[in-house]
Fold this protein.
Amino acid sequence: MTGSTSELIAQLADTAEPVGAWRVSSRLAAAALAGALAALTLQVLTVGVRHDVAGTLQAIGAKLIAVTVVVATWAWLLRKLVSPGSTDGLQRMLAAGTVVIALVLVASGSPSWSGVARCVTQVLLLALPAFVILAIAVRHCAPTDLIQAGVALGMLSGAIGVLAYSLGCTADEPNVVAWRYGIAILVWGIIGGALGKLILRW
């Protein structure tokens, strides 16, 4: 076979029949749910749930709502990126989502780097099953821009890991939470972008 992988993908994208929207959405939703359950299980088995849940329900609820919005946003963007020929116009949205996270970090002030390192390390572990499960699902959807799809895959996986981590995280201050969670998600986005061409080929 002649031609590069990128040329082959472009040719297939031009002639490919669109993957059924319902099939794509249900496949990704099932993968995300499985990844979330795996992350929650790991969180309970490794760190556990914070002991003062009863007295901090409001703070925990606020974090869960915020992270759920992030999960939903990246899940929607990943859904848009996974089908052949569907990446047009999404580059700016992908960049905008990353920039928003970066701006939130800058506006939140200086972090405690020891806490950030601990959070990122735990989220790397918690998000790994979601990353693997979602990567398998994304490959079946035949994405054409593997780097962009990889970034979105990483961001979504990181957000799922953060969602599980937030149940055991005792930091409730908005600036601390923004730095720890934001950097953890960005790290997974970088990992996804770096591995996209390797793991999402079809």
